[in-house]
Amino acid sequence: MQLLRLKKRLALARRGHKLLKDKLDGLVQKFFGVKNQYLELYRKLLPRLTRIFTQAVLASALSHPASFEKLSSAEVSSSIHTNIKNIMGVRIPSYSLTTGGKLPPPPSTLIASSELFQSRASFSAILPDLIEMAALSQSLRLMAREIIETRRRVNALEYVLIPELERNLRYIHLKLSELERASQVVLLKIKDIVRAH
Prior knowledge:
By secondary structure, the protein is of the alpha+beta class. The protein is built from 3 helices and 2 strands; from the N terminus they run H-H-E-E-H. The chain has helices at 2-62, 65-72, 114-196; strands spanning 76-87, 90-101.
């Protein structure tokens, strides 16, 4: 009975190992796809962000401090909506940005330089891409965590549980064959005793 139970557990462990290995391969493939998207977006955004921050630093040097206050208190509302996708058992977020209101008109060049308004407008234009980049970054983090966890399970099955079950099966086979030989010896002795009488 123990032998049959162990055989069933071993078959189940091997099937689970195969499924987890397939999941791990799929996750790694998806991870590299998302990583390529992230790097492509990063390369596209980096020069634009550098230009925007350079504009903002120049604008802060050339503008009156009150103009920053005016721009920051402008009635522009925005909200981020989160949708969840399931990729190979991993819940991946995707974000979408909705904005309402309008940017204030460009301030007078006596109060603020035109770079201040340009940097604000440029940043507003680049914001959806930044939010997409944040979603890709979070996806990479979640997928990496799942890959590590799945790899740990695959290794536990491959190097610990399956070899242990196989050792136990071999031990039971060995014991059963010993018992069979012992019972054959007993039967031969009984046969010899019966013949002798």
